[in-house]
Amino acid sequence: LVFISFFPQLVLGPICRSKDLLPQLMREAPNQVPDLTRAVRLISSGLFKKVFLATFLATHLVNDAFVSPENYSSLELFTAMYAYSAMVYCDFSGYTDMARGLGLLLGFHLPENFNGPYAATNIGEFWRRWHMSYSRWLRDYIYFPLGGSKGSPWRTYFNLGVTFLVGGLWHGAHWKFVIWGAIHAAALVTYKASLDFRRFLGIKLKRVHPWWYLVLGWFLTFHTCAFARIFFRSVDMETIGMYFQRMFDFSASGRGIEVMLLVVASFGIGLNFFGRYIKTAFDKMHNALPAWSRPLVWL
């Protein structure tokens, strides 16, 4: 009962396994927070990402653009697509950062859930970095029971497709989620097939790629995820149709774009690339503070 009602991760994750949390419940409670600096950093970064960055993007463009796209120009709807990608990352990773930080304050280590997913250079890597506990859930409870990659290549592609179609339905019983899952399924199957084809031709798969290859891979991966999110975020199929229609109607007029919105969206996406440097700097700063001053800094 304690495991299934463990409040820090109950609403959105990270998805905890009983084998990870129950042994921690059975141990003697620690006398102090296991890693105070990390807990403070996780809660602080989570609050900043969710309350400031995500809320700003939602209220200044995203919420309205995905409900009434007919009121916006092509440029604004492209911007809304990028802003939503930044918003959903900041909102979701911010929540799970706070969940993990609160867990640490109670003496529990919850699994990492995001690892710079927008820095991924292929769709497979993206799903190893985005909502990692959910990806492992799909893998262990759907993909592996279907046979995983143990059968023929075609069977592997089928297993990937079914896994992500079910992953779409996992978010809600609506066609927009099915299409979102189908887009990711198609992208993963295409990526896996490209690797198989190169092996078939005898082309050795490199571990180190030239910069242009990585940039191209990042561009395709990021935009696949961003375009798929138009289906995920829009209210219904009619709104999705209107969104795409206005998005590629370059003569449509709109309301204009705030410079601050571009700054916040860019920063939210940029955290995937330079966030670890901020973490390191925060940890050094917090560890250097006298104990008596820390509550003032938290406040």
Characterization of this structure:
This protein has 299 residues and is mostly helical. The chain is 70% helix and 0% strand. It contains 11 helices and no strands. Helix 2 packs antiparallel against helix 10 and helix 3 (74-105) crosses helix 8 (211-233). The longest helix is centred in the first third of the chain and has 32 residues, at 36-67. The protein is globular and about 60 Å long. The mean pLDDT is 92.
Topology:
Blueprint: H1 18-26, H2 36-67, H3 74-105, H4 123-129, H5 132-146, H6 153-170, H7 175-200, H8 211-233, H9 237-247, H10 259-288, H11 294-298
Overall 3D form: globular
Low-pLDDT parts are: none
Please state the CA-atom Rg, rounded to the nearest Å.
21 Å
Cα(first) to Cα(last) distance is 34 Å
User: How does the major sheet shape up?
Assistant: none
If you average the pLDDT, what whole number results? 92
Structural class: mainly alpha
H/E topology pattern:
HHHHHHHHHHH
* Percent strand: under 5%
What is the percent of helical residues? 55-70%
Number of strands: 0
Number of helices: 11
